[in-house]
Known about the structure:
CATH superfamily of the largest domain: P-loop containing nucleotide triphosphate hydrolases
CATH architecture of the largest domain: 3-Layer(aba) Sandwich
Oligomer: single chain
Distance between the termini: 86 Å
Helix content: 40-55%
Amino acid sequence: TLPVPFLILGAWIYTRDARDRYRQQREAASDMNALLHDNVSGIRQIKSYTAETEEHERFNSFSDRLRRASLRIMKWWAFYSPGMSFVGMAGYVLVLAFGGTAVMNGSMQPGELVMFFLLLSLFYEPIGRLHQLNQMALSSRAAADRVFEILDAEDEPHSADGEPLPRPVQGHVRFDQVSFAYGDQPTLHEVTLEAKPGQTVALVGPTGAGKSTLVNLLCRFYEYQKGSITIDGQELNNTRKASLRSALGYVTQEAFLFNGTVRENLCLARRDADEAELWSALEAARAADFVRELPDGIDTNVGERGVKLSGGQRQRLSIARALLKDPPILLLDEATASVDSETERLIQEALEALMANRTAFVIAHRLSTIRNADRIYVLDQGRVVEEGTHQQLLARDGLYAELSRQAFLAEQENALSPA
Length: 419
């Protein structure tokens, strides 16, 4: 048992130092995988900017970092494993030396010496296995630590808590003195606005004014710290999330489609929708024509994030999905941004069909898309600075009028620029 303390000491030293080495290796592997994912996803951008050389150098740098991290582990294990074997063999040498001397002196029988060797083998074998298990545990723990970072993150309030929205939902939405901050960064300051049932309310303002934050609060993706948000008089903080979100239809600037068929993406809104309902939603969203032209029609796979479709096609499918859900309240976040004029016209027609007889919140940089809104709220630095109709706000010659002039000039420049 003389070598045992040295074995324990060696295992402790190895564990102490190897833990950090395995963590560095996992971080290097994670960073390289993320780089590979970005390069494959953005291969067109890399080629269009002739950035192949730079990205190749970045990959070599990340790969070299992973190689060096792996070598540090291998070198440490290459030192530790033979060292522990040497200490273990020292036990055999001691038994052989003392036992051999005892046999020669006649104080021990040869059979007893053989028995000691067998017992020593049985003693050291599990210790050797423990060293191997220790190495595997360190490697696994480095990977598990990154998972535990996610598992240990603070949970959002339980979605089943609270009362369901009263049915049918009328769609009367009110923000009353609502304030919100991302961490220590204030974003909204005592915002008050209202959308009556069936009204279209537009939210406009410079980038970072807090428009999308209002929509996120309405969906309860975040919890507001001050003020009140109600739907049909019921406080959102006291409303069951599943009930709330079932009443909302959300169409974002970047339409997200899952790697599946057109049908599967539409049925995300309603799992029990039949064929007629699917095509009715596609017709209303001005998407039926291009879906019919797809290789397998409505059962065509759209690829990861809808990569097999154009931006306008993805957006119209997103609108069709919202139509299929048939929500009483709509949230449209830059739904016509970054598309050409013809696609914008088709999307705008689809949105008009979608917004009919529903409460709608519309965020748009293109002010031409919200001129007919029942109410327009202008936000700047997290505050409502103006409100009214399109004509009323133009007459005040404030921030909205300035944004309108800038938008008009931008549209004129686009119209005059060569195709």
